[in-house]
Amino acid sequence: MRPILVWLLLTLPAGAQTLPPADVYVLGEVHDNPTHHAVQARLVAGIDPAAVVFEMLTQDQAGRIAPDTPRDADTLDALLDWSGGGWPDMAMYAPIMAASDAPILGAAGPAGELGAYGLEGPLPPEQQAGREALQQAAHCGALPDDALLRFVARQRAMDARFAAHVLRALKDHGPPVVLIAGNGHARADWGVPAAIARVRPDLRVVSVVQGEGEEMPPADVILHAPAPERGDPCVAFR
């Protein structure tokens, strides 16, 4: 599928974005960009999913959200012990959880046997090098060379776990299932969509990545929104 390229403004009207039919939607984000989360909430409302899986939640946390739990920021922040988890403010994520009445599920933590995802085999050299370069850039050039292999392996394992949790949600709840995750997991070429395709090539998966005007990784839909004001992310590495 040729990617759909859109520049999203804060004034984007509700319902202005529609996505192709799919069994699974992987909706990416830059974690601290509030516009990205607002777009995810609109897309979830339009998809009307059978379940929504969050990278940010463990299964235990997600299990605390009952069908009648109010899905406002204050309630969810306290219920999920969210503020201590290192993620941006729950006020950004609560509207996504409130955008439908679908069950909220967690993708963090164990997902059972992952042998089908090919984690034991090496990556093609060009992809390994590309992944290492991205990890180094994401950590402001501060990673020692011997750490890059571990970081790439960890990312591969996370993609496989997220894919496994999504497939379990699909089995338990039916389609469509939405995954909310960072852009690195949403990319179509080697993220969660590729992991799903490895074990369930019959499924229709639509990937959405959201940037801030920069070149973005491959996806079915590529959206852009203004970057929020933020400090220097490399300060912590100096």
UniProtKB/TrEMBL annotation:
Report if keyword Signal is assigned: yes
Q: Name one Pfam family in it.
A: Cofac_haem_bdg
The residues forming the signal peptide are 1-16
Report the InterPro entries cross-referenced here: Cofac_haem-bd_dom
Q: Which residues form the Haem-binding uptake Tiki superfamily ChaN domain?
A: 17-195
Question: Could you tell me the keywords of this UniProt record?
Answer: Signal
Spell out the protein name for this chain.
Putative iron-regulated protein
